[in-house]
């Protein structure tokens, strides 16, 4: 039996035990993992060093090495996050709804775990802890498939987690790592409907698309963000510029940062120059349409492709539009249904924008950077869903659950 | 441009209009369709006759011909169902939750349509009306892909629907039929993520699996039902037998009918003979394990395959088990996570069964035949989901919706 099948089977058995685990048991396990991570941090850092050295030898980029790197502070952050997780409400067993039918049947809908979750991710060892703990809290078993470039770190972390699980009377197979990181094995995972209930890819757009395009196991998709700020004719200029700058520059590499500003033409006549200068002061390179090129200096002429590009850096595309209608049409054509903002003092424009823009989150007079499980107050985040089924937008713990109907009768037949 | 792409594009445009349609507008359209179906029933029946004749010439089975057949009563039933649908609450625009963050951001989660739904189904023209009306009520545009064997009926029905839509000021492209029924075109639909938000297959297990296995568009899966009744040692014999008979024979061809009875050995010692005779009196053919073969007459020896078979007819597999634990393990191994019942007077056994059986619906002392949107009181049913994401169990109107977060601020940045 391959490692994948063997571990998948064990995960399924573990999932049945986890589904019955009490909140107290699960929280105890999370605390134990937190403690164990700190206790064994030297071991984890040593193993992480092996990955870092191999990465350097293989010419891994600085930014990838930084993602791969663990240190005392990062391990402390993971340990702290585990304690915060114990304080969150356990969604499992929650009553969603209950009612009685005229024939006397008592129907209840209760939250249950999904079962076994396959997590496919790139070279960030912190995802190993993050994914394991979120799955554990929600009573799911997890089968982790990380990058080969982080294999020593991941093996070390999972060893530490399993060590803690052993002490907490929960099956150690609740958290398992696939040590076989061949591509073919990942492909096998995509089709393992018999044992896996859900796949969650975490990483770049390419990884996610590979999983979405090839999986028959249902996928929790976290997508790309080609987000916009639209400034309408009534927008407060200072607020508009401040929000655009924040949404672009506060952390340009993340999916809820904006890639485009659309400016209504009358507002543009008065304030476009100011907006462009403000962006350029923050070292943002601007791709602009003709009007933008006429107004600003050093503007790169925007090509059609620019409207659909997720720059993920200090680059932005700026376009002048006629009105809110054109802005909405543009966003619905080029956006990725993630986060879209309108800066406006017009109730009418805001309502139209909120109704007609097809996105997980629509903002009025606020930065798109708030699309985040913690900023929303969920206390945890699995990712940000840009799909429409199951969960849309920032996903908290309930996104890792399903429901079950329980029906109590006294002999009812049809 | 192919018919598929052309209609998919139009559907996307129509979906944007439908998303804004008021409940009143949508209900008016549903009433208009109801009326139009009756008005043009002669035309529909004439076209249906063409399909029936072609079916007969091609040697279609009696049961398939019956599914294909329309008559005055069936058209009246469709028309009545449309009126009932107007009386149901409109989920679109409903506030799921709202809260305010410490920074003053006001977050609301509201129900929105999914967008464009691709419906792939077999030779039941009533699905054409059913699917169109459920999508319309929930503000979704639908692209219908029915069977070539029902093409005349479907074309006629969609013509009538579009006629009614025209009069109600909603885009006629809200409901479109693909007239190209080639297999390659359906396969193209599976990958049409650009225009389709969801695919819903309706029909046999084979059709559903083809869609699930080959689609990159998210699928709302309605699955097969290999359902069980487990009779434990405390079960009331009359109730147990009555429920088993009802769950098997009241309508054997549907997914919530049972295919298996598991009997605890002590109960079996006293009542198995009675159960077997009662089933045989209803012309049910019994596949049984050794104990069952010893107890009853004319029992077909059960092979391993029988435990996983959806007979969908007057056939059943019966097994004697040690206890509730063995019953649960058997169900979790062979079941399809649909509907599972325990007949028992033991609170402990019931709780264990409810917690440990992995199914969309678990029953205590009631027939599995109640797993149904109407029996649950939803007033409508899209199908019964056996998947764990998005919706599980009978799906009412909310299953055809997604949500959107609206965030209102006054200049908040991070």
From TrEMBL, chains A, B:
Class in the EC hierarchy, top level: oxidoreductase
GO cellular component: cytoplasm
Annotated PROSITE patterns: PROA (PS01223)
UniProt keyword annotation of Amino-acid biosynthesis present: yes
Pathway: Amino-acid biosynthesis; L-proline biosynthesis; L-glutamate 5-semialdehyde from L-glutamate: step 2/2
Domain of life per record: Bacteria
GO molecular function, one term: glutamate-5-semialdehyde dehydrogenase activity
Keywords associated with the record: Amino-acid biosynthesis, Cytoplasm, NADP, Oxidoreductase, Proline biosynthesis
Family: Belongs to the gamma-glutamyl phosphate reductase family.
Reaction(s) catalysed (UniProt annotation): L-glutamate 5-semialdehyde + phosphate + NADP(+) = L-glutamyl 5-phosphate + NADPH + H(+)
UniProt KW Transport keyword: no
InterPro entries hit by this protein: Ald_DH/histidinol_DH (IPR016161), Ald_DH_C (IPR016163), Ald_DH_N (IPR016162), Aldehyde_DH_dom (IPR015590), G-glutamylP_reductase_CS (IPR020593), Glu-5-SA_DH (IPR012134), GPR_dom (IPR000965)
Domain Aldehyde dehydrogenase: 8-293
CDD domains assigned to the protein according to its UniProt record, in alphabetical order: ALDH_F18-19_ProA-GPR
Lineage: Bacteria, Bacillati, Bacillota, Bacilli, Bacillales
GO biological process: L-proline biosynthetic process
Biological function: Catalyzes the NADPH-dependent reduction of L-glutamate 5-phosphate into L-glutamate 5-semialdehyde and phosphate. The product spontaneously undergoes cyclization to form 1-pyrroline-5-carboxylate.
Entry's EC annotation: 1.2.1.41
Cell compartment(s), UniProt: Cytoplasm
Coarse class of the protein's main subcellular location: cytoplasm
Designated name of the protein: Gamma-glutamyl phosphate reductase
